[in-house]
């Protein structure tokens, strides 16, 4: 139960952040986003030489925050990730909840639909600790994005492709 207390605090704080962020406007559904990711997760061997890897899936929800930075969108995302087994045996996968702040910088000088991504967060699952990531995305439509990211977690590295639905 202790392990899930940070997640419960993060989940309970989202409505408060949204209300404070929107200057008393309350929850705004058009700021929501839902997404899913497929990933390749790599755990480096602490003994050198080789590493083990496994495929994974994630689902997440995000909420856009107000900011005053031109061409930058900031969101808070909460999700759940699950990998396949890294090796034969019990407890050989990584799963759990995470929360992250995400900044998307539009890149109109390259392509009006292209954006760069930066991510900083906390993994509250099996690979608990700080997570840090970077990547790029593309707006397929005003409501649908695809992303490619590299995320470094405490014990693993994640290469993921995501599909995001913006409301």
Folded structure, characterized:
With 167 residues, the protein is mainly beta. 10% of the residues lie in helices and 55% in strands. The chain contains 1 helix and 8 strands. An 8-stranded antiparallel barrel has the order 1-2-3-4-5-6-7-8. A hairpin with a 6-residue loop joins strand 2 (51-65) and strand 3 (72-83). The longest helix is centred in the first third of the chain and has 17 residues, at 5-21. The relative contact order is 0.19.
Short description:
With 167 residues, this protein is mainly β. The chain has one helix and eight strands. The longest helix is centred in the first third of the chain and has 17 residues, at 5-21.
Strand and helix layout:
Blueprint: H1 5-21, E1 32-44, E2 51-65, E3 72-83, E4 95-106, E5 114-123, E6 129-139, E7 144-152, E8 157-166
Antiparallel strand pairs: 1-2, 1-8, 2-3, 3-4, 4-5, 5-6, 6-7, 7-8
Q: What global shape is seen?
A: elongated
Low-confidence stretches: 4-13, 15-22
Return Rg in Å: 17 Å
How much helix is in the residues? 10-25%
Q: Mean pLDDT, nearest integer? A: 85
Strand content: over 45%
Read across the widest sheet, the strand sequence of neighbours is 1-2-3-4-5-6-7-8
Q: In whole angstroms, how far apart are the ends?
A: 33 Å
SS elements, strand count: 8
**Major sheet, described briefly?**
8 strands, antiparallel, barrel
Q: So how many helices?
A: 1
Write the H/E string, N to C: HEEEEEEEE
